[in-house]
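Deliverable D5.2: sample structural annotation.
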Amino acid sequence: MAIQIGQPAPGFEVEALVGKEFKKISLGDYKGKWVCLFFYPLDFTFVCPTEIVEFSNRAKDFKTRSCEVIGGSTDSKFSHLGWCKSHPQLADLKIPLLSDYNKSVAKDYGILKEDLGAAFRGTFLIDPDGKLRFIYITDLSVGRNVDEVLRVLDALQTGELTPCQWKKGDAPLKV
């Protein structure tokens, strides 16, 4: 069954790199909070660290909105650790990187590029009740805009109708 807006987000329990340690994390650990779950294709690539660093740098902006950020790919936890140790900008991440080595999470979220064995760039906003509220998937070559993810999170959290180009502080639509 394909994932769908307004439906429960697929659960997961996986190993993750949290700081410099390996820990098991699950979607259930974040019950009652918003979650921004983003996947990137592979460690040791070119576009991916730009996104990971930006999500990490903006983790505080998400936290002020009661939203936790989780990154991840289909690489192993050991690959995550090696990459973070070798890449200066990844050395002090403020977000966990989940390891979907068996590719089950990427499959469940509909972003696995089977012929590559890696995930497309998928971004998911999950509400405190565990429902998918935003799905954004791009090709491997296109990095995402974290400001847009925050804008959508702000809009969703209003519970109102918000027009194109709406941003926090703007009035919602009146019907």
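Annotation notes: Residues 146-158 form the longest helix (13 residues). Helices lie at 48-57, 59-63, 77-86, 104-108, 146-158.
The annotation will be released with the project's public dataset once the embargo ends.
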